[in-house]
Amino acid sequence: MPKQQNILGIESSCDDTAAAVVRGVPGGVAQVLSSIVVGQTELHAAFGGVVPEIAARAHVEKLDVSVIQALAEAKLNMSDIDAIAVTAGPGLIGGVVSGVMLAKGLSVATGKPIYGVNHLAGHALTPRLTDNVEFPYLMLLVSGGHCQFLIATGPQDFRRLGGTIDDAPGEAFDKVARLIGLPQPGGPMIERAAKQGDPKRFKLPRPLLDRAGCDMSFSGLKTAVLRTRDTVIAEKGGLGVQDQSDLAASFQAAVSDVLAEKSRRAMTEYLALDPIAPTLCVAGGVAANMTIRSGLETVCHEFEAEFVAPPLALCTDNAAMIAYAALAQMTERAPDDMTLSARPRWPLDSVSPSMLGSGKKGAKA
Ligand code: KG4
Ligand code: ZN
Questions:
Q1: pTM, whole model, 2 decimals?
Q2: Are 282 and 293 in contact (CB under 8 A)?
């Protein structure tokens, strides 16, 4: 029986400093022994988005203590670790460099192998860590920094069917919250306000539904909310609580409709592969939204596919997914060496045409 390995994971590509230990058989099942995530929300709050330089400095301060804590919670020493996995991109370059430098230092000091991992592969492989989902599966990544449909056919094999050409949905939720006077983080605040709102009061666009394929756009939707808000203010002299709730509900419904309809198209392409156990998996902070989730569940129902959403702590940025990705990939790839470099852009799928745009949380592919 193949030997279990303890993998130390390190993640610092955006605004979460994370370290984790995952134990498992290379290419097989694994368990999370510890997962430490230190957020930076309050450091960026005054700036309306993640400030790359502030993020990088905060990572430098918190990376070593996060690793120490992850080892302590896993009740292991560095000598018990078999390999070091680190996010080597895509992301905000200062943060990625911080993580890669720490991982290289640890590797040189301890002689342990180092694996540079694509952050998106970490997200995309998580359903195998949490739910043992079989390849090939369909994956929707929806967060503040990502938005794409992928078909995962192997630990290193992903086909991108489409993605956002501008903002990511979480980014749009955050911007719209600001526009209508709700606090950050915008996603949960809009979801809460929308519960009291009428999703049909304002007719907002469903961008790119008239275009074939799975590409999406959320920037125009945000502008439509801005115009609608200004019209209401001009007519009524201000934005009341009910107006705010109705705008939140109308916006949320538009995002949900777009994601559901594009999922139908992605599902059709995916089912052409004739998967034995058709599954749509979702990851990213936006997957917490119950309206969006139920839209996706409806699509799965229509296509008789399973719907898998890993627990939120493993759906949002974390280092367990990075450690697990290295464990999943190590049967078919060699470790990296000291030439490993940090990459601001690193498309998972090098065949499909690259996507446009780079949001407040860095490059999306
Ligand atoms: O995956 P995540 O924690 O971080 C990255 O973006 O990398 O996702 C955070 C994003 C934020 O933009 C936040 O507003 C959004 O996910 N979000 C939500 C909800 N909870 C978090 N969006 C809509 N509805 C929610 N309930
Ligand atoms: Zn992410």
A1: 0.92
A2: yes
